[in-house]
């Protein structure tokens, strides 16, 4: 028999109860029928506790870890990831900062200002971008420039570059890029800028990549080893047995799951949230297909150009070879003509 979380959270409804509520509302039933069979099953499973909710979906993450309503939760998560105590001062708008529609494959994206006025961008990607480092660097630079413009505008003539603070870029990958997959024993990678001589200056951009697929493999083999593992389990695991293990070791997460299942009792609202996530994932899937096809086209264009250049080189070489042969033929024909003249002279003298 399938494990269910209902024994931990009695407010959870059964699948049949959720399905009945949907059937009684024509609009909800139409929405439910617009989903695939797999999507319908996923929705009913997490509403009934047969699976955990995907916390990293934008709507669910912001509901449970909203830094405006419960800042202590994201404070703790960021402190554990950044290996230093941090405190969120405010949430910053981020809709205008995404460069060139870089939101493809991004599930969740939030920007916060910390108590020391540094900026932290927390982002979740369904599938790791190609050129993840380059993309993160561009977005980090954009956030750094925004901070510079804002602070300079606020301080005016009193502005100094010491007023500019760090920008942290924290990316959670549900499926890691190839560059991280060979590190089977490491699921978190920190990047900072350092010199090759040991000289130290304060450079302002730091990056952290969290590979949740690799974490789940480590969790399977090693279990929950510390509070950071507990948070990553909460964020990325929907298996009821693994959630039970988390609650046994860290019962404080029970309050967060309780909020999730109280939310799930509002079927209309949670269906709207789930439907929005499905639309975003579908858009992202289309964008991924476009990106992959464009990459293939770019590769084919490169191959075509290389083949064209090689053909031109080959043609030039063959033309040169043909020219040399023409020259040699011409020289030999000229030599034959000279020899024929000589032969004619011999024959003429012989007749005399």
List keywords for this structure.
352 residues; alpha/beta; 6-stranded mixed sheet; 12 helices; elongated
Could you walk me through the main structural features you see in this protein, from its secondary elements to its overall organization?
With 352 residues, this protein is of the alpha/beta class. It is 58% helix and 12% strand. The protein contains 12 helices and 6 strands. The protein has helices at 15-23, 26-33, 37-47, 58-64, 71-82, 132-155, 178-181, 212-222, 227-236, 240-249, 253-264, 267-351; strands at 88-92, 106-114, 119-127, 167-175, 188-191, 205-211. It has a 6-stranded mixed sheet with strand order 1-2-3-4-6-5, sandwiched between helices. Helix 8 packs across helix 9. It is elongated and about 130 Å long. The N and C termini lie far apart (123 Å). The model is unreliable at 99-104 (pLDDT under 50).
Shape: elongated
Radius of gyration from the CA trace? 33 Å
The order of strands across the largest sheet is 1-2-3-4-6-5
What is the helix fraction of residues, given as a range?
A: 55-70%
**Uncertain regions spanning at least 5 consecutive residues:** 99-104
The rounded distance between the terminal residues' Cα atoms is 123 Å
What is the averaged pLDDT score? Answer: 87
Total strand segments: 6
Annotation field: number of helices: 12
Report the sheet-strand fraction: 5-15%
Largest sheet: 6 strands, mixed
Q: What are the secondary-structure elements, in order, as H or E?
A: HHHHHEEEHEHEEHHHHH
Structural class: alpha/beta
